[in-house]
Amino acid sequence: MKLKPLKENKNIFIDERGKLYTKNLVPGKVVYEEKLVKYNNEEYREWITNRSKLAAAIKKNIGEVPINKGDKILYLGIASGTTASHISDIIDKNGIIFGVDVSSRILRDLVPILYDRSNIIGILADADKPWEYLHIVTKVDLIYQDVAQPHQVKIFIRNIEYYLKNKGYGFLAVKARSIDVSKDPREIFKEVRRELEDYGLKIIKEVRLEPYHIDHAMFLVQNK
């Protein structure tokens, strides 16, 4: 098996079958039963598309993946750390992820990952109240949000106001059924686009995440 870096991000890799990988920051350790492979004396973790909305977005040609070594990331809705662990691989030991989640039970599941990965900080807080973690979180290069709330766009924008650098990026994973189960997801995604543009964000790309995640879309935006 051969791996080659993606042209959109040289720290994400792809094999001949189109499967995605990141170089394992903690060799020998898995996070969610993903496959480990060796290539050129380095260990890589398979990035499973139906377990990670960011991996699905990459497979659906979101294009640019503006996550780099040394970046500071605010991750809203970090949950058990599946996607965050791959971002952790990409940003390497000099980067940092501020991982926010409102559920203490879910954060307990994250604790073993925090022991292994010193570049992730778990924060028990409500992403709807970004002022609550001002004493921990600095200005960041990118905000990644995966939060199942009806007002998830407002949460995203509120955190951008507090934490995103000028010209910084954001990934917003939109769960249409969490916003309004009675509406056509296509209409919801149009409304989300309008809301982001009305705030003044530049929308770089929007992709639907089917077949990996039904009624989901990913928006890649940039702070003007």
UniProtKB/TrEMBL annotation:
Instruction: Give the matching Pfam families.
Output: Fibrillarin
Matching NCBIfam families, A to Z? Answer: PRK04266.1-2 (NF003276), PRK04266.1-3 (NF003277)
Q: What is this protein called?
A: Fibrillarin-like rRNA/tRNA 2'-O-methyltransferase
Gene3D superfamilies (alphabetical): Phosphorylase Kinase, domain 1, Vaccinia Virus protein VP39
Q: Does the keyword Methyltransferase apply?
A: yes
Q: What is a GO molecular function of this protein?
A: RNA binding
Q: Which residues form a coiled coil?
A: none
* Functional description taken from the UniProt entry: Involved in pre-rRNA and tRNA processing. Utilizes the methyl donor S-adenosyl-L-methionine to catalyze the site-specific 2'-hydroxyl methylation of ribose moieties in rRNA and tRNA. Site specificity is provided by a guide RNA that base pairs with the substrate. Methylation occurs at a characteristic distance from the sequence involved in base pairing with the guide RNA.
Keyword set for this entry?
Methyltransferase, RNA-binding, rRNA processing, Transferase, tRNA processing
Q: How does it assemble?
A: Interacts with nop5. Component of box C/D small ribonucleoprotein (sRNP) particles that contain rpl7ae, FlpA and nop5, plus a guide RNA.
HAMAP family named among the record's database cross-references = RNA_methyltransf_FlpA (MF_00351)
What is one Gene Ontology biological process annotated in the Swiss-Prot or TrEMBL record? box C/D sno(s)RNA 3'-end processing
**Species for this entry:** Nanobsidianus stetteri
For this chain, the family text in UniProt reads:
Belongs to the methyltransferase superfamily. Fibrillarin family.
